[in-house]
Amino acid sequence: MNIMIPVFASMVSDLDNISRFLYTGVITDMVNAFAGGESYTLEPLSAAVLVGTILIAIGLFVIIYKRNGYETD
């Protein structure tokens, strides 16, 4: 479902606003710029989205890893 929001963002303006706050939206904008032969400048909001997504993924991994008992003391 998360990947569908950037796909339909060109048709619905509300989805375009939501897409800017999603990892897949940032990556889609980047790929579209490169495919069109343009340069892409990473904006602070886009960088924050990418870093935030990575931090959330690492945090979830650590929590699930500890919860399943894979950690040895």
Q: If you had to describe this structure to a student in words, what would you say it looks like?
A:
The structure is a single chain. With 73 residues, the protein is an all-alpha fold. The protein has one domain (4-67). The chain contains four helices and no strands. The protein has helices at residues 4-8, 13-19, 23-35, 44-67. It is elongated, with a radius of gyration of 16 Å. The mean pLDDT is 88.
- SS strand fraction: under 5%
**Number of DSSP E strands:** 0
The chain-level mean pLDDT equals 88
Helix and strand composition category: mainly alpha
Task: Name the helicity range.
Answer: 55-70%
Give the domain tally.
Answer: 1
Distance between the amino and carboxyl termini: 39 Å
Overall 3D shape: elongated
Give the count of helical stretches: 4
The parts where pLDDT drops under 50 for at least 5 residues are none
Order of helices and strands: HHHH
For the sheet with most strands, the description reads:
none
Rounded to an integer in angstroms, the radius of gyration calculated over CA atoms is 16 Å
